[in-house]
Amino acid sequence: MPSTLIITLILMLLTAVVLAKTLKLPHNVWLLFLVQPLAMSASPVIVFIGGILSTQLAPDPSLATLPLTLMIIGIACSTIPAAMLAKKLGRKKAFNIGLSLSCLGSLLAMFAAIHASFSLFLVACIFIGSSIAFIMQFRFAAIDSVINKDDTAKVVSVLMFAGIFAAFIGPEIAVMGKDWLSSPYGYAGSFLGLAIMVFISIIIFQAFTDTEIHHQQSQGEERPLITIIKQPLFIIAILAAAIGYGLMSLLMTATPLSMHNMQGMSLVDTKWVIQSHITAMYLPSLISGLLVKRFGLKNVLLLGIFLFVGVVIIALNGQHLMHYWWTLVLLGIGWNFLFLTGTVLLADCYHAVERHKVQAINDFIIFTVQALASLLAGWILFKGGWHTLVYSTMPFILLIFIANMFFYRLHYPIKSKVNLLKCDENIEPQEQN
Predict the structure, then answer these.
(1) How many CB atoms lie within 10 A of CB 293?
(2) For residue 349, what are the contacts with CB-CB under 8 A and spacing of at least 6?
(3) Range with the poorest average pLDDT among 156-170, 183-197, 246-260
(4) What is residue 427's predicted lDDT score, i.e. its pLDDT?
(5) CA-based nearest residue to 158, from 141, 173, 134, 172
(6) How far apart are CA 161 and CA 315, in angstroms?
């Protein structure tokens, strides 16, 4: 088991070196590529074992998804403070605060497992969630680091691809460290291992350099937030990312409980499905940037929607191991396309001087939706069953499909170098090239 973790870390380092020589991107991008998986491994740990551990710690099994929900609430509540701290202190100091919160949360979770304290575990998950709000800002720091804005999709793809390593690091730590420390229901050592990974990420991150936004980019009057939010492109960007994250969270949160607790499948099979899902979330980032360049954001968004339709069809056709596997794999790929589309579109929705507040409100909306989805996941699963949970996703898939059709009607020149959002609402959209 330790060899798997070591191999993953070595592959992560080699991948960063190879991609750095292939893609001409700034130093900060590759530094964040290394730091992000180590810090983000907290998320798959909570997804993988949070519900399983909580079925033993919680007074009611239906509360098993509450730790994950509170983690996501921690993300939602901390997105605006994280962005404001980045604006006031600079991204480096703000990110150091965020990484420290993750380390503290991991140690609190370790003590919660040792003392079988559900309430302390909930507090730990809030701390971990707060830290993730800072880590999710990495993609914006990477975007700030490039001068040529045509590289935005490439940079976002690189940072998203880094998440594939978190897919392996987190669950491997969870299983490998399960019995490192004595605790009533196990897993205390898992959180100790997580704290070690986060501490390593803090050390590496100290080489990060704050990026100065060019003066000419920051000139101009800062628009009211309501003016920015009312832009059709902003609404489409938010819907793509929020619905993608919400539906992904709903099904991903419920899957370990449905597989392991309700269907009696092994922990190893459950781990494989979750790892495959998180891998599918990030592996397409190797080509998603190229897909955007070749086919345009609208078509990549449409492909993501069709993948979500496939998720529903497979999930309703059975609850065997491969049904879960295909459901979660397609769910991960669909999320990748929707989240990438939303992030790239958002970058066209603000001027440089507006970036912190727009990024903050964007992430606040996304993770509030995700928190609600994860909270409902356990309740719907235990009250209505797996099929009811799957049926509940259909209206939202239809909503994002309608939004994408409206996107087509806008006829925005996606492949153009024109910054669409610098235009006011009274400017007529141009014809598609």
Answers:
(1) 15
(2) 228, 231, 233, 234, 237, 358, 421
(3) 156-170
(4) 35
(5) 141
(6) 26
Long-range contacts of the stretch 427-430 (C-beta < 8 A, 24+) = none
Confidence of residue 347 (pLDDT cuts 50, 70, 90): confident
Distance in angstroms (rounded) separating the CA atoms of residues 34 and 233:
32
Q: List own/partner pairs for 396-402 with CB under 8 A and 24 or more apart.
A: 396/243, 396/246, 396/247, 397/243, 397/247, 397/305, 397/308, 397/309, 397/312, 399/239, 399/243, 400/239, 400/240, 400/243, 400/244, 400/301, 400/305, 400/308, 400/338, 401/305
Distance CA 45, CA 172 (A): 9
C-alpha dihedral, 310 to 313 to 317 to 323, nearest 10° = 20
- Average pLDDT on 401-422 reads 58
Residue type, 150: D
| Residue spans of alpha helices (H) in 177-210 | 188-205
Cα–Cα distance for residue pair 412/149, rounded to 1 Å: 17
Q: Which of 240, 296, 300 is nearest to 414 (CA)?
A: 296
Q: How far apart are CA 105 and CA 67, in angstroms?
A: 12
Sign of CA dihedral 173, 41, 167, 211: negative
Q: Is 183 helix (H, G, I), strand (E, B) or coil?
A: coil
Q: Which tokens belong to 244?
A: 């993608």
Q: For the chain, which domains are there?
A: 22-207+223-422 (1.20.1250.20)
Say which DSSP state 50 is in.
I
